[in-house]
User: What shape does this take?
Amino acid sequence: MVIKVSVYEDNVALLESLSYLIREAEGLELCTASSTALQIVDECRNNCPDVIMMDIDMPQITGIEATRLVKKDFPDINVMILTVFEDKDKIFEALCAGATGYLLKKTPSVQIINAIRDIFHGGSPISIGIARKVLEFFSKPVSSEKNECEERSTASKLTQRETEILKYLVKGYSYKKIADACCISINTVNNHINNLYKKLHINSKSEAVVKVLQKKIEP
Assistant: This one.
C-alpha cells in the first residue's frame, strides 16, 4: 500500500529536501508540498493524504492552527510535527491540536521516513528528547490538593498492565511494539487500550499524552 504524504514547511530548501526524500522512498507518495498551510483544508480534500508533516512556525497560519483545522474535518489524517521547538508549551499545544507524532528537524532522514511509516501503521513517533520531556511530568509533585485527588482517582481506575501500556503510548510505541514489549498479542493490546480510552474518557493516543501533560493521570 502506498502512503500518501503532504509536507508543510516554510523553509524552501528544507521543503525541497523533504519532498525529494519522500519521492525517493519506497512505498511513499508526495501529494502536497507547500510553504504555507493557508489552503490546507482544500488540499486535504483534493489530495487525501494519509500523513501530514507539519512545521510549527509557518506564515499566515501556524502549524498548530493548521493541525487543528485538519483534525476537525479529517480526523483520520495523521499529523506529524517536524519542528525545532522543544519547549513543553509547544509540545502540549501540538498534541492538544491533534498531532500524533512530534519530531525535531535534527532527526536523521532515515528516521523521518521510518516515522512516517510508523505513524501510518498506528504508532506515535516522538523524538527521544521530546519523549523525555513528556515523561518528566510523571515525577512532578502535584500542585494542589484538588489536583492530587483528581490524579489519584483517575490512576486508581487503571490496572498495572494498562498503566504499563500507557507509558509505552507516551513513548510513541506502535501497537506491535507494545505487544512485543509486554509479550502479549496485538489483540490483547487493543483490548487494554480500548479499556484505557473508556476509563480516561478519551478517543486517541494523542489525548492520552495530553492527559499526562495536564497531570490528570500519573502512570
